[in-house]
Design a protein that fits this description.
Length: about 425
């Protein structure tokens, strides 16, 4: 562990740790990188959390937090190793993430996770205003397992198809209709129907059924699956090195640096090159200011214009509410009035393309006033760049509030992943 900390400390990484009370034994580690903090503050709207239970040879759960850029690329925000996968450990890690934001206004609007109750509870406590979406693909896997358990082979495909129709319903009426049909078809397997309704739809439908998630500005990020490729590499590296992150460190470090290079280059390309796929004069005001991913989304709406026209009902306008982009009916209006798509119809998320300058427009940490005796510390802080300032503030918070962090009241009993398996056994 100590060796790992040395590695983390090198090359602009920054970490926080907690020790077991009265001992030298490390409980939890949280680490991030200067560039990750900058990206986090630019792309603070949506976070994706993935939790790998006991991958490490010391059997430590690993939490990875990701963000997504305007150019549609995934970046690592932070990693945390926990002694236990309990609510209290997640709270500690999410509090560290919260301290990385330049301003309270930048708290994520959406956090996408799998259904890990300890993590979800912690998110609710640390980010009470954020919407915690649940990955529908993760839920589909769980449903698939139950389906195999309760339903004969010849009916499984049909039942899973019905499940997907319910989840991808775009309106509440459609959802009710498909759910009723599902109940009818599965009337003879009431245990399965009860499981689907009581474990998923009743408590969580607003978090994963499209009819509800369509109202949330998630910029197209509703699954934890998009991080699988980057994540798989980290998982894979841990596997081939027997879960030893120290041995995997060079590879992990290389992966993160590579990720950062690709992101910076994607910004540069957007600024300097006009994409030859989206050359229509209709996009003229957007070239150099929004990413290819953004244009691709608008282009898909443009293809709907012929069918939708200016009919808001037909349009549904969900790309406006989920992505902050002009929907088909808006584009139809623009075409009628022979207006090029104005840049200000595009959400600011898609227009962030410069890691060095974007943050200067945000509130500076210097707004937080310290006591007179701390003038020297302030002077030091001003010599730092924005990421340096954020780290400095977070470290000061840790010192000042360490007693409140360590002496939390006892926690309610928390269900973790294992709880689901136990239920299965009881049935
Ligand atoms: Zn519309």
């Amino acid at each position: 562990m100590k060796h790992l900390l040395k590695l983390i400390q090198s090359e602009n990484y920054v970490y926080w740790t907690r020790r077991r009370d009265g001992s030298d034994v490390l409980r939890d580690i949280f680490w991030t990188h200067h560039d990750s903090i900058k990206l986090l503050n630019m792309f603070h709207f949506v976070l994706i959390c993935d939790n790998t239970y006991k991958t490490d040879k010391y059997r430590l759960p690993l939490l990875e937090i990701f963000g997504v850029t305007s150019t549609g690329l995934t970046f690592s925000v932070a990693f945390a190793y926990f002694e236990q996968e309990r609510q209290e450990n997640f709270i500690w890690a999410f509090e560290k993430v919260r301290d990385l934001f330049v301003s309270k206004n930048l708290i994520p609007k959406v956090i996408v996770t799998d259904r890990v109750l300890a993590m979800m509870n912690a998110i609710h406590i640390v980010f009470p205003t954020s919407i915690n979406l649940l990955c529908p693909l993760y839920i589909e896997k769980k449903i698939g397992t139950k389906c195999k358990q309760y339903i004969t082979n010849d009916r499984q495909y049909e039942v899973m198809d019905l499940w997907k129709k319910i989840v991808y319903s775009t309106s509440v009426e459609e959802f009710d209709h498909h759910l009723q049909h599902f109940e009818l078809v599965c009337a003879d397997i009431i245990t399965f129907v009860d499981y689907v309704k009581d474990s998923w739809f009743k408590p969580y439908k607003e978090r994963f059924v499209v009819a509800w998630t369509n109202r949330v500005m998630h910029f197209g990020n509703t699954t934890t699956n998009r991080i699988e490729s980057a994540h798989w590499r980290l998982k894979y590296m841990l596997q081939i090195n027997n879960g030893d992150l120290c041995k995997s460190w060079d590879a992990v470090n290389m992966m993160l640096k590579n990720q950062m290079c690709i992101i910076k280059s994607s910004f540069q390309k957007t600024i300097s090159i006009v994409d030859n796929v989206y050359t229509s004069p209709f996009y003229q005001r957007l070239h150099h200011f929004v990413s290819r991913t953004c244009l691709k989304n608008i282009d898909e709406q443009l293809k709907r214009v012929k069918m939708v026209g200016i009919d808001k009902i037909k349009c549904g306008c969900s790309i406006r509410t989920t992505h902050g982009l002009p929907c088909a009916c808006e584009l139809a209006y623009l075409q009628i009035s022979a207006t090029l798509i104005p840049l200000d119809t595009i959400h600011i998320f898609w227009r962030k393309l410069n890691m060095e300058h974007e943050l200067e427009h945000e509130e500076s940490l210097s707004q937080y006033d310290f006591l007179e005796e701390l003038e020297a510390m302030k002077a030091y802080m001003k010599t730092q760049d924005i990421a340096g300032q954020i780290i400095f503030k977070a470290k000061v918070r840790e010192l000042v509030f360490s007693h409140t962090t360590l002496k939390r009241p006892p926690h309610d009993k928390v269900k973790i992943n294992g709880a689901i398996k136990n239920n299965k056994k009881r049935k």
